[in-house]
Amino acid sequence: MKYSSGPTSLYLKLTLVIIGAAIAIATLIYTQNLVAKLQEREKEIVQLYANGLEFATKPESSGSDLSFVFNNIIKRIDFPIILTDEHDQIISNSPGYGYKNIDIDKSLTEKQLKEFFKNEIKKLGTEHQPIDVKTLDGKVLNKIYYGDSEIINRLRYYPYLQIIFAFLFIMIAYSSFSYIKRSEQSNIWVGMSKETAHQLGTPISSLMGWNEILRLNYNSPDRVLDTSEEIESDLNRLNKITKRFSKIGSKPELTMDSPYEVIQRVINYFQRRLPQTGKRVELTVDGNKEVKTNINAELLEWVFENLIKNALDAIENKDGLIKFSVQKVNNHIEIDISDNGKGIEAGKRKDIFRPGYSTKKRGWGLGLSLSKRIINDYHKGKIFVKHSAPDEGTTFKIILPSSEQLT
Predict the structure, then answer these.
(1) How many CA within 13 A on the CB side of residue 353?
(2) Which helix (H) or strand (E) holds 205?
(3) CA quadruple 70, 71, 76, 79: dihedral positive or negative?
(4) 3-state DSSP helix/strand/coil percent for the chain, to nearest 5?
(5) Does the domain spanning 251-406 belong to CATH 3.30.565.10?
(6) If DSSP codes are grouped into helix, strand and coil, which group holds residue 248?
(7) Backbone φ and ψ of 328, nearest 5°
(8) Residue (of 71, 73, 83, 92) closest to 130 by Cα position
(9) Helices 67-76 and 6-57, interaxial angle, to 10°?
(10) Residues 364, 194: contact at Cβ < 8 Å?
(11) Exposed e or buried b for every residue in 76-98, given b needs 16+ CB within 10 A?
């Protein structure tokens, strides 16, 4: 088998990294833009607060009730704010007037509280430039120090957390997919080894038997002649198996041939060996004998053999039926393979073509996977379960393009 996906895998990884980086950068830019807009909104609220304080210092505001304005402005403030005089000294230790949204330890002494506000004012000054409250002649009356609200702080760090979690998720997903891929490849290799042993086992066992017959009957020319014909048949079988495996992983040569005749050859091969199974199984084929298309006969025989083997395993009674039907429908060829076995459960139909999946105790789950590859990749066709029901049997359908489609 041929696996040459190194460069493709590298390009795929680079593409995923680039896409991930682009998403991360876009998320970061969008979030920071949103943070900037929220900061501008909070600055406008502070400016409105400052304007209200400035208005209060004007002569025309004397006697005006500004409580409504200040109450509504202050209620909108959900971020830390401290009001100081022109020398950066807090004007009041009363919450809601001298400061808001500042967490204070009630056990602090007066001196400790003064030092606490001094540090808070310095910290808020590093976050934003304080807004001055001025009199009519431009003299600074108060300063308003403010910081970012909780929602801005969360938004500021949100993209970084998102990137970290996304990176962890990608690493876990990549590790999981890598493990699944390695496991699947391992199943394929193990399956191929077992399939090779199975394919070679039958003709080799037969050759050993024929050799023993030759040793016992070397003085009987008629018996030797009959045996030599069977030996030639098994040698042809070995040669056919070699051709099959040599075509897996490379582009097979397609020639014009009749699917009906290919099926008939496979049926003839199995009919000589059915008595060994202990089951009375009838193998039949009907339909259009003349229809032809471009196929690889060796590989297509392999598909039909796998389907017959699966059908034989599914037939639990002694009287079984495996029926092939070949028809040309519009511009393609349809082949139905039906049996009267135990059927396939609905939940398992999607898994039967997966490498390594098998419901048989002695199976290795590669026959149908290889069949799907031969039909889909090499013949540009389709293979699927057309119908199946418990204790009623299963019908597989193979769709091959006709010669008109391929020209």
Answers:
(1) 14
(2) helix 150-216
(3) positive
(4) 55, 15, 25
(5) yes
(6) coil
(7) -100, 120
(8) 83
(9) 160
(10) yes
(11) ebebbbbbbeeeeebeeeeeeeb
Task: Provide the residue count of the chain.
Answer: 407
Return the structure tokens found at 277.
């199974």
Rg value, the chain, Cα: 41
pLDDT digits over 3-25, tens only?
444 555 567 667 777 877 787 78
What are the residue boundaries of the structural domains of the chain, listed by start? 6-148, 154-232, 251-406
Query: Model-level pTM greater than 0.85?
Result: no
Q: CA 388: distance to chain centroid? A: 28
Residue with tokens 């760090």: 157
Over residues 191-201, the pLDDT tens digits come to 666 666 666 76
* The token pair that represents 70 in the structure block: 């200040």
**What number of other Cβ atoms are within 10 A of residue 369's Cβ?**
22
pLDDT digit string, tens, across residues 93-112:
777 678 888 888 888 888 88
Distances (CA, A) of 146 to 34, 39, 43, 54, 132: 19, 11, 9, 18, 12
3-state class (DSSP) for residue 250: coil
DSSP helix/strand/coil, 354: coil
The angle that helices 297-314 and 221-247 make with each other, rounded to 10 degrees, is: 100
Q: How far apart are CA 240 and CA 312, in angstroms?
A: 22
* Residue 374 DSSP one-character state: I
